[in-house]
Amino acid sequence: MASDQFSIDNPKIGRSSRTLSADNLAVRPDGSPDDPDRVETGPTALAFAEWRCAGITAPNLQRMRQTRLDRTVAELQKRDLGGILLFDPLNIRYASDTSNMQLWVAHNPSRALLVTADGHMTLWDFHGCDHLSSYLPLVKEVRHGAGFFYFLAGDKEHEIARSFAADVDSVLRERCGSNRRLAVDKIEVEGLRGLDELGLDIHSGQAVMEHARSIKSVDEINAMRCAIDTCQRGMLAMHAAAKTGIAEVELWALLHAENIKRGGEWIETRILSSGPRTNPWMQEAGPRVLKDGDLLAYDTDLVGPYGMCADLSRTLYIGESEPTTEQKRLYQTAHEHIQTNMQMLAPGVSFRELTERGQKLPDEFIAQRYGVMMHGVGLCDEWPAILYPEDFIEGAFDYELQPGMVLCVEAYIGAVGGREGVKLEDQVLVTESGFENLSTVSFEERLLAN
């Protein structure tokens, strides 16, 4: 592998500049690295073998990374921004494909990425972690010093934050000249004050990144197909084990295990419930043991291989007895709701139209409606949020569907005071002519039968 060249420019900040060679980027046609000892995370041999058998094409990672950077830069240029400073680990992942302790840094903001409007990327990584991005030539330099939250900075958070802000300012002056317009997605209070003191004109970075992330390239769609395949194998493992006598948490552990052993990354929630715990919704997996005649409902919220999200929901019937008429009614109402709403998806359809033309929920289910009718998805749940009419915010969502958007179409059906509820959700790609449902796990035939 090619060697990295480091030069320490500022001991206080811990800055390092790195020259990279393309020699350490070789990958096999299926997207797996030539060197299995590389530090890069990614899918396992098991996952690649399954995808080949399923006819799923792995993404071209170099092209996907360049496309994501290009989309980020295009959004900056459209808004006349000099750059964007990112702390959200998923925004950092999107723009640079770097990853480091993603869940930990989500609540311990110690990594940052600055992308300037000319496409230059500067990464502030956790100390001693320069090697984690050594295979990514789009990351032009690695620095340190972005951790100024109290746990790391203590009573010096003010000084450390201002040192970091000065470091950001130096890159902006070098790359952007007189353009002082900087977008920021999220930042600790002291860091924002430090940027303000330097006279930077701060703008919303979340809007920039959500719009950049909303259109998926062919490689991102392929990566998503890989993640969904991994997720659905975990779902089928849960379905096979979902019998009377097993605890909710035991089932949930299967989804984690199937994801991790294929190179998946984490699961954002642990929403799985059974029997009377399915109403109201949003209850997380617990020790309850499944009983004959229960409904079992779950929402995967799974971040799989390549960091792509597979957000699917299913509800099962447990046992050999016949489902009740009420269980069938709940299930069929949810199924009809998502299937009907899915048919509206096509380029040019406005978000408002989706809200206004979507199937209306029966009155008894409105009070416990799900938070959205649909939502975007990519590295996680993303923009846009397609709201029910009762929740629509005038002027907030004046946009249209475009090819390459991926939306999760979902519903929760459960009446206030009801014994059970049903959650269903599919992940759907907007195409040039309509839509493609990327989900293939079947629905519960016993609950669909009249």
Q: How would you concisely characterize the structure shown here?
A:
The chain has 450 residues and is of the alpha+beta class. The chain has helices at 45-54, 61-78, 89-96, 102-107, 150-153, 157-176, 189-197, 205-214, 218-241, 248-260, 325-342, 351-357, 363-366, 445-448, and strands at residues 5-8, 16-19, 83-86, 112-116, 121-124, 139-143, 181-184, 201-204, 266-267, 272-274, 295-299, 302-303, 309-310, 313-317, 374-377, 381-386, 406-413, 422-430, 435-437.
Which structural class do the helices and strands define? alpha+beta
Note the quaternary state here. Answer: single chain
Structure annotation, total helices? 14
Integer average pLDDT: 91
How does this model look, in words?
With 450 residues, the protein is an alpha+beta fold. Helix content is 34%, strand content 18%. The chain has 14 helices and 19 strands. The strands form four sheets. An eight-stranded mixed sheet has the order 1-2-6-5-4-3-7-8, sandwiched between helices. A five-stranded antiparallel sheet has the order 16-15-17-18-19. Strand 4 and strand 5 form a beta hairpin. Helix 2 crosses helix 8 and helix 9 runs antiparallel to helix 10. The longest helix has 24 residues. The protein is globular and about 70 Å long. The protein starts with a strand and ends with a helix. The N terminus is likely disordered.
